[in-house]
Amino acid sequence: MAVGKETQPVNHHRSEEPLLEDETPVVTAPEKGATKLTVGALRKSLPAHVFEKSLAQSMWYFVVDMTVIIACLRSYTDDMSWPLYIVYANVLGLFMWCLFVVGHDCGHGTFSENKLINAVVGHFCHGFILVPFWPWAKSHATHHAFHQHKNKDKSHGWYDASDEGFVKLMKNQPFFIPFLYFFVYLLAGFPDGSHFSPFSSLFNTSRDRTMCAISALVCVGFFSAFVTYWGWEKFLYIYVIPWLIYNFWLYKVTFLQHHADNTVVYSEESWDFLTGGLQTVDRVYDTQTGALDAIMHNITNGHVIHHLFSTSIPHYNLMEATEIIRPQLGNKYMLVKGFPFMELIRHHWYFTRPLMVNRGAIWEFISQEQYFKEQAAAKTAAK
Fold first, then answer.
1. What is the distance, to the nearest Å, from the Cα of residue 9 to the centroid of all Cα atoms in its chain?
2. Which of these, 42, 184, 270, 346, could form a disulfide with 266 (CB 3.0-4.6 Å)?
3. DSSP reduced 3-state for 264
4. Distance CA 126, CA 137 (A)
């Protein structure tokens, strides 16, 4: 993936820990004489083996996730107690999310060196959870290529103070979170285009439309097989409720990988690949043992490196690469520790979500209190 413009117009200095809620990002000029970071220099600092894609190792993670999923499905009984069902639904939902991450590797080409294997395994992983694999891979590749570019990034939209109507409603509702990814983003196509319709705005060529149709039919095939085998009522309890929990995991993790109080968004003039990529946030969900992050294939706490080398480093090498690269990034590296449930809610609640405001070449996020103070000050100054 090519690096964009050579010159970084601004440098965002931050501590190793996230900023406190009442702090705002400090934007300064680059330090005189400082060594310029480049993706090429970072790549050269990594050992060759972190770029090696092992089919056997990737298949191991696929088999582990599917084994847990199958064990969950086989454990379901119609007379299961509610406490036990809650455990069942949450474990199955979590491992559906883990299976998505395996398919995510397939979409990036890091599952193996073989494109056919990547396509087959990717379609199985994502078809099982009703995600059209090739259309998702297309929009996701654009997200990586233009991360934090105001006009070209895809996936999670930002909370602009000027949002109105349906857009504002969708971004303002924490209760919609389990439904946002599939129903709003993938199916309805807000804001990037439907991933199920070959005629959506996401596709411009007959090849892309054909690939969309194939991936959509795979999802329809899985859906039809589940309903035929279980019937509608059992399908609801066995699959749909855990699947909504998976959707919650997917939305929560992916949203918070790219949103924090001190992240910024760039204009065409101020953006380049590395600058945008370093607006990604590593998050440690399990601060005690690290087991939960490992179960999720370290897509949570190895996401910065993943964004810089998304097509070349498989998930099982992300943590080694992170430990090597992190010191080189210094205060450009963002790390947040702790299970971020309340942070997610705060970002989606009517009166607490931060708002994106323009600061010239960049957009930053500020509290609503600060936003209304600035608005009031601007009106006073205009009188």
1. 26
2. 270
3. strand
4. 10
Residue of 284, 262, 286, 295 lying closest to 362 (CA atoms): 262
Q: What's the pLDDT tens digit per position in 269-320?
A: 999 999 999 999 999 999 999 999 999 999 999 999 999 999 999 999 999 9
Q: Which one has a higher pLDDT value, 349 or 108?
A: 108
DSSP string, 9-64: --EEE--SSPPPTT---EEEPPPTTPPPP-HHHHHHTS-GGGG---HHHHHHHHHH
- The angle at the Cα of 219, spanning 217 to 222, to the nearest 5 degrees, equals 110
| Residue appearing with tokens 């859906």 | 223
Structure-derived torsion over alpha carbons of residues 3, 119, 251, 248, reported in degrees to the nearest 10: -160
Q: Give the residues across from 13 on adjacent strands.
A: 26
Show Cβ contacts of residue 96 under 8 Å, excluding neighbours closer than 6 positions: 69, 128, 129, 242, 243, 245, 246, 249
Report whether 15 contacts 330 (CB < 8 A): no
The number of helices, as runs of H, and strands, as runs of E, in the chain is: 16, 7
Strand partners, 362: 266
Mean pLDDT of the chain: 87
Dihedral over Cα of 264, 268, 269, 271: its sign: positive
Note the pTM of the prediction, 2 decimals.
0.87
